[in-house]
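Field log, afternoon session.

UNIT: design team B
ACTIVITY: writing a sequence onto a fixed backbone
BACKBONE:
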């Protein structure tokens, strides 16, 4: 099993955690633009365990932060134009989520909202034709029908690799562990059949800075559940939360 990581805040300290990873892995790195992404990855290129570094574009907070039809058309088209200009084999991950800024929400009632859904769809298709590796991230906690209506999920026919965020650190505050893990196991069977990559966590907070996290025992159990279901890759949010006690059990699971 391939055990990979997100890193939303790629600093010298968080990226140094990659030295703890003693198995083949992938790293999905948030960056404001391609230039920043390349500057970050330049210091990682000698790490022999890093199989792939994936560009995770993030926008200014007032623009929406994540990628969605709520984002202004010119922002989307400029980003997609830059990505499509990269060489064949370049890897990018679109984090498809509604905007962090609530004041942007009324945009979903406009005609341009539907137009921007088509712009994202067109990008996914064209990127595949040009040999750009595209991953899309969506929340498993929003019903799929609603995700599709809102343009934060697209079928795999657009050639992208789908990732679903199934973060249970907050679920575990009000549901018994056994229930959480049974639900994960049921979903894992479907993800395996559909070749979907699940993302687990959180082991460190994200952009809100106050997200609930969990420890090694919960993470290890969830990775074991996914492995038993035949999942080929799992992504952990996020690298900055990795500690020495994680290393041995995750390495064992990656090699089994």
């Amino acid at each position: 099993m391939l055990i990979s990581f997100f890193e939303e805040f790629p600093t010298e300290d968080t990226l140094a955690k990659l030295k703890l990873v003693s198995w083949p892995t992938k790293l999905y790195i948030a960056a404001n633009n391609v230039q920043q992404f390349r500057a970050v990855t330049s210091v990682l290129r000698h790490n022999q365990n890093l199989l792939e570094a994936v560009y995770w574009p993030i926008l200014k907070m007032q623009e929406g932060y994540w990628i969605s039809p709520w984002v202004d058309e010119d922002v989307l088209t400029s980003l997609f134009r830059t990505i499509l200009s990269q060489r064949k084999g370049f890897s990018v991950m679109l984090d498809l989520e509604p905007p962090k800024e609530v004041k942007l929400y009324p945009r979903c009632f406009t005609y341009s909202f539907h137009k921007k859904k088509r712009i994202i769809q067109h990008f996914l298709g064209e990127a595949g034709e040009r040999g750009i590796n595209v991953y899309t991230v969506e929340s498993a906690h929003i019903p799929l029908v609603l995700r599709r209506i809102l343009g934060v999920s697209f079928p795999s026919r657009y050639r992208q690799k789908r990732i679903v965020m199934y973060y249970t650190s907050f679920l575990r505050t009000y549901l018994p562990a056994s229930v959480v893990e049974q639900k994960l196991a049921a979903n894992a069977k479907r993800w395996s059949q559909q070749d979907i990559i699940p993302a687990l966590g959180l082991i460190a907070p994200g952009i809100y800075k106050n997200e609930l996290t969990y420890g090694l025992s919960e993470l290890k159990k969830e990775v074991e559940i996914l492995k038993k279901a035949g999942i080929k890759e799992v992504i952990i949010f996020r690298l900055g939360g990795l500690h020495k006690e994680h290393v041995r059990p995750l390495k064992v699971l990656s090699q089994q």
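LOG NOTE: Residues 88 and 131 are 5 Å apart (CA to CA).
NEXT ACTIVITY: expression trials, pending approval
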